[in-house]
Design goal:
Chain A: It is a multi-pass membrane protein. Chain A: The chain crosses the membrane at residues 21-42, 188-212, 233-257, 277-304, 316-335, 341-359, 371-393. The complex is a heterodimer of chains A (420) and B (299). Chain A is α/β, with parallel strands linked by helices and 420 residues long. Chain A is 68% helix and 6% strand. The two termini of chain A are 31 Å apart. Chain B starts with a strand and ends in a 5-residue tail after the last helix. Classes of the chains: A alpha/beta (420), B alpha/beta (299).
Chain lengths: 420, 299
Amino acid sequence: MNKFFIMVGQTFKSRVKSKSFFITTLVTLALIFLITNIQTIIEMFDDEEEGAGTSEIAVVSDEESWAILLGETLSSQEGLSVEVNEVNSDEARESVEEGTYDSAISLDSGEDGLPVATQYTGEDSSLAEAEMMQQSLQQVKVAIAAEEAEVDEATLQAINTPIPFETVFVGEESGAKSSEEMAQTRGLVYVMLFLLYLSVMLYGSMIATEVATEKSSRVMEILISSVSPVSQMFAKITGIALLGLLQFSLILGVGYIGVQQNSGEGSFLNEFGLGDIQLSVIAYGILFFILGYLLYATLAATLGSLVSRLEDAQQMISPMVYLIIIAFFISVFGLNAPDSTFITVTSYIPFFSPLIMFLRVGMLDIPLWEVILSVGFLVAAIVVLAMIGARVYKGGVLMYGKSTSLKDVKRAFQLSKKEN
Amino acid sequence: MTLKLHNVTKKFGSFTAVDHLSLEIPEKQIFGFLGANGAGKTTTFRMILGLIQQSGGDITWNESGIGYDKSHLIGYLPEERGLYPKMKVQDQLVYLARLRGMNSKEAIHELEQWLEKFKVPDYKSKKVEDLSKGNQQKIQFISAVLHKPKLLILDEPFSGLDPVNVEMLKEAVVELKEAGTSIVFSSHRMEHVEELCEHLCILHHGKPVVHGKLKDIKRSFGKKNVRVRADFDLAFLKDLPGVTKYKSLGDSCELQVENEHISQTILTELHGKGFIRTFDLEEPSLNDIFIEKVGDSYE
């Protein structure tokens, strides 16, 4: 057992110390930081362009009361400072050109006695600002029109109050979560699926490369005369898992801090369902993550033990890559139709279940026994694969030659057999 | 701690790599495995180490098999050399020694002594890929002996080395034997085996053709060599009864005779023919025995 940990340590250490690990981790962390802070960053750039951060608006009108009314409405908006009737219409236009004001609005009386507005604006006025302006103007117009039609305050308020609207979800049988909940989990599930997919690709090929490196440098024969192939194989898997754990805790840590800092009202992260992360979904995520990793890592180590040259490793693990790509595509489809039969069926197939069962758990309210059954299949598959893998590994590491096909599994199997 | 092989057989499909091999490898001695390429030497070693399972027969060391629980007592230098190319010599040796149950401190102390002995103390912090092939081989040898094994298996330890390094490694092997290590090594260089081993075994197509003590093997072989140098033509000697081989070497010749008594007949024949400068009766060399037993198939 002691040797097992020496090997785990060696695998971990040699990878952590490598330059490629340092660079990929740093780049990923920078990326995560950027993504979680993207709003702040965008705003930062906006601020720079607009200088002080508030727009100065001049409101001009011959009808004093209109101008005051619009002034009040606009003043209540954030980021605007309003000046009413300081200048006349022509002067306002000029001062926008000169840059004294960011924009100017002139209200004139139309044919029906209601206001008609003209906005003078510089180049960099935003669409949002124009929209805001239009809304305020509409309010002013309604108020003026109502006043002229002699509608009383109470009636006006009743008209303006929005209708109460509530969605009540009644589809108990399908087991779907309410659409609000679903939208909230979808983002999280998507992120988790992607992480799973990415890590299987990344760490799976890392394990295969690790094994292939030892084989191609022929140090393998010394190793297997010291440590049994089975503990060697699992030492590799564990070592790389620790590496993944370190990398992911860094990524998730930075990600979490980023989300916490930026999860104010209306932020895009919130809309994506990442604002308040559900603990149960995370727990399932970790469970399926570990199991999925073990399954694919065992497969990768097995395949890696069959190649004798490093260059062949990527080719050898291509079946594994195809499996995870298929699983990922199924799960992307499942994000939009989590309760379809196809998704239900595939959520029990070991190579797909880490992604798809997790998707179902995250998106639907499914009974616990379904999860347990799927996890059971998965664990059984891991055990069987580990047993086959250990045998193939034992034979495979002594096998040299042009081995890039799966036929070699059989040869390796025979090499490790007692009786032929 | 005698290593015993009893009726060991290994088949790969229909191909028999090792065929009913029975051997006893005595303790604290050097045992030589001879054989042409593909004779089954490496396969036998791998079976002794438990890396591959024999198809039949038993292998026991100290009354039980060799498993991973004994790996700290075993040293192994595989025929295919290999170390981590990007790792530093010290890190590498310490790691491999730790896998054989040695602690780091002791390993560092030992490896310094070994590097000193092989006159390469400054390689400690170099990467293996920066070393020459011969020097890599020295490092590999150290990796096999660093943890002070009781049983040391060396697969072709001297191949690919220059004569100076071969001598250095030979010395180290003899020193290890004197310190009480049992050593098994394979070679297809007869002179190395002849020089180092007390016991040996010649494998041919997986079968032991000669096996036992070097002295006994030579004695029981029966045939002797006679070397004659004289000032007259010696060609007539090849037609004498009892002479099995004749090789002319300029002014001298080498004869193989059926037994040592024939030499006396030759001496009588030579008498009075002229001036005889050398007459030598020699033990057969291992090379002669090997060629006799294995035949022309040896390269």
